[in-house]
Each structure stands twice: as C-alpha cells, then as structure tokens.
C-alpha cells in the first residue's frame, strides 16, 4: 500500500513539472494557482495542479487502510480514539519554530515529527503536502525512516516521548514501528518550515481530519541575520526570503476567515514578550475550549525554556533554552548597516504587514528605547 502512495506522488510531480517550471506564484489566489512566467512576463492560470491533486486525492482516499482508520467520518487511532492533528508552519528558518514545536509536543499520547518535509529536499519527486498527508494518516515508508536514521539526533529526537521510547535511534525508526506508534497517538504534531500557507488549503478541506494549523512568523531582519550566522550564508537573499513571507501573510488571514477554528497566526516576538499568554491562546485554539487552563507540562516547559539568565549563551544553534524577553531583539545589536538597509528595502511590505517599525539607521536600530512595534500595530492573532 505504501508503494501506491509514493507512486501517485511521483506521477503528480512529473505532470506539474511540465506546466509550472520557471514560474513564480502570485499572492492573491487560493485554490487555483496563478503564475507569472519569468521568461516572457505573460500570466497564465495553471489548472493542471488542481486537477492532478483531485485525481491523486481520490486514489489516496480509496486506499484500504481508511477502512480501519476512518470511523463515523473521523480519523481515529488504532484504539478508536479521535485524532487531533496540529501542524506548525514557520514562514522561514530561524523563526523560533523549534521551541514552539517542542511546546506543542508537551502532551501525553502524542507523536511529534520534527520537519518531516525536509525529506522532500532529498527527494524532489515528492510534494511537501503529500508528505504531510502521509504523516497525518501514518503512511510511513521505508525510504522515509531510512532518511530519519541518517539525521542527527538533535534534529529528530526533540521531545521526551521519543527519547524514552527510542533509546537507540535504530530501535524504533523503522517503518512498521513508527507507523504503529503513529496509529496509537491521538495527537499528531508536525513542525515544518518548507511549506507555503496556501498549500494548507488542501489539507484543511479534508473532512476526516481534525486539523489545526498554526502559522508562525518572525521579523525577517532577525531571521535573515540568524540564518547568515547559523548557516554561514554569504548573501542575505532578503528579496527571496521576504517574497515567501509576504505571500504567507496575505494568504493566512484569508484562511483564518475561511477556517476560523482551524487556522491561527502568531509572531515569535509576541510569544517572547508574553509566553504564558500566547501559549494559553494556542492551547484554547488547539483544545477548542476557551476556558481551559494551560496544561502543567506546558507551563513547566515555558518556565524552563524562556527565563534563562541574560548572560547565558544558548548551547547550540537549535537550542530551545533562552531568555525570550531579551533575545527577540538581540538582532538589533548585531545587524550591520549594509544588512539593515538591504533587508528593510526588500522586506518593507512584510514589516508593514506585521506592524514593525523601520529603523533605517544603526543608531535607531541600536536604541532599544525605540520600540520594535508601531503604535497602530494589530497583533497577528487578531487579523
């Protein structure tokens, strides 16, 4: 059955590649994808992708495993308990997604997958949305678990349950073992940074899945500087980075209106300033209960990971221990004049949409008495 799943993904990829290569997606279309051809500057509505998605979806939903995992129109565990799926989508790397992903994973009976879509970078025939769908329905392949075993433990084992159950990486990272663990988990949580928010619509429309999507975004001046520092990038590539972020910021409010109980937006800065408050908002959203209190495990995690000493340096790039109220503006002390000017030039629309001030000069950037947020800013969660 897994072979069927991967074969139709490959067919889809090949069909789309003939119609969408050398194109750039515009921001204003949900459902059908509007493209601007970069070679001849002519616009074309590419319907092939939606047609192929429809055909592959039919094949997927006809898969026989649904006979046991769909009960009364709902995705359930192997023990018949309704499943809740949470996908944390970060608009770019270095957005605080590792910490918030771990926070979401502080639940019992859950499976947390750290960046499953990263697998698609090594397998260009596989679409990221298809990978997420496979993970939601526990369709896990030998190829995927082989890739997992090749990764650093810091990138895979990011939460207590996995650490307890997989003392040795090879002991449980097999397709049958991971599939069984997945089917038992009534909370399936994924953190991804290589997905655009408009791609979420296909998953949100799945009638069988209780899906919650949290979109996380951070000031691009911070993410780009952090990416350069962490990955050693020689160029800022601000235009490319902010093109994707701007698209997400325009699409996500549309999705929040269309799926008010399924989509939520949050900024890293707001979480850092008020981690308990924002965590409570996320919990109310996930639990569908606005009067519920924050789980003890979440409160303990926040206390241990956001209140570090200002003098303490994070032990490694992906560490989730920090003093959040200080760190979220640390980039203002580190950014160079050239980087500040370039990023603000290319990312002005993003900064305006987020309600962040433009500084223009290092003097203003370094002066923390000048607030990061503009006076009339509307929090992302309220858009």
UniProtKB/TrEMBL annotation:
Pfam families associated with the record: Sulfotransfer_1
Domain of life: Eukaryota
InterPro entries in alphabetical order: Gal/GlcNAc/GalNAc_ST, P-loop_NTPase, Sulfotransferase_dom
GO biological process, one term: N-acetylglucosamine metabolic process
GO MF annotation: an example: N-acetylglucosamine 6-O-sulfotransferase activity
Domain called Sulfotransferase: residue spans: 87-354
Name assigned to this protein: Sulfotransferase domain-containing protein
Species, as recorded: Halocaridina rubra (Hawaiian red shrimp)
């Amino acid at each position: 059955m897994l072979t069927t799943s991967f074969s139709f993904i490959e067919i889809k990829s090949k069909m789309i590649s003939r119609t969408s290569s050398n194109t750039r997606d515009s921001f204003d279309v949900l459902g059908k994808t509007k493209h601007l051809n970069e070679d001849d500057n002519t616009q074309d509505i590419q319907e092939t992708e939606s047609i192929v998605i429809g055909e592959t979806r039919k094949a997927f939903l006809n898969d026989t495993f649904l006979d046991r995992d769909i009960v009364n129109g709902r995705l359930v565990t192997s023990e018949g308990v309704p499943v809740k799926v949470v996908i944390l989508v970060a608009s770019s790397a270095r957005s605080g997604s590792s910490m918030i992903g771990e926070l979401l994973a502080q639940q019992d009976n859950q499976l947390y997958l750290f960046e499953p879509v990263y697998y698609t970078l090594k397998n260009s025939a596989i679409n990221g949305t298809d990978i997420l769908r496979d993970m939601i329905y526990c369709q896990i392949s030998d190829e995927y678990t082989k890739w997992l075993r090749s990764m650093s433990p810091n990138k895979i084992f990011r939460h207590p349950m996995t650490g307890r159950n997989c003392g040795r990486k090879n002991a449980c990272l097999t397709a049958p073992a991971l599939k069984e663990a997945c089917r038992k988990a009534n909370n399936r949580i994924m953190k991804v940074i290589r997905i655009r928010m408009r791609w979420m619509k296909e998953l949100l429309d799945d009638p069988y899945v209780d899906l919650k999507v949290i979109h996380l975004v951070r000031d691009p001046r911070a993410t780009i500087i952090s990416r350069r520092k962490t990955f050693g990038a020689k160029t800022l590539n601000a235009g490319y980075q902010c093109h994707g972020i701007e698209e997400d910021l325009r699409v996500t409010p549309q999705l929040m209106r269309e799926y008010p109980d399924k989509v939520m937006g949050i900024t890293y800065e707001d979480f850092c300033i008020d981690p308990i408050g924002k965590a409570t908002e996320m919990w109310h959203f996930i639990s569908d209960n606005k009067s519920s209190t924050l789980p003890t495990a979440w409160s303990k995690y926040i206390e241990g990971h956001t209140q570090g000493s200002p003098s303490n340096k994070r032990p490694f790039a992906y560490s989730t221990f920090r003093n959040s109220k200080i760190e979220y503006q640390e980039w203002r002390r580190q950014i160079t004049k050239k980087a500040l000017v370039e990023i603000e030039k290319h990312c002005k629309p993003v900064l305006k949409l987020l309600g962040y001030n433009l500084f223009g000069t290092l003097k203003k950037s370094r002066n923390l008495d000048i607030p990061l947020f503009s006076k009339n800013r509307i929090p992302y969660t309220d858009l």
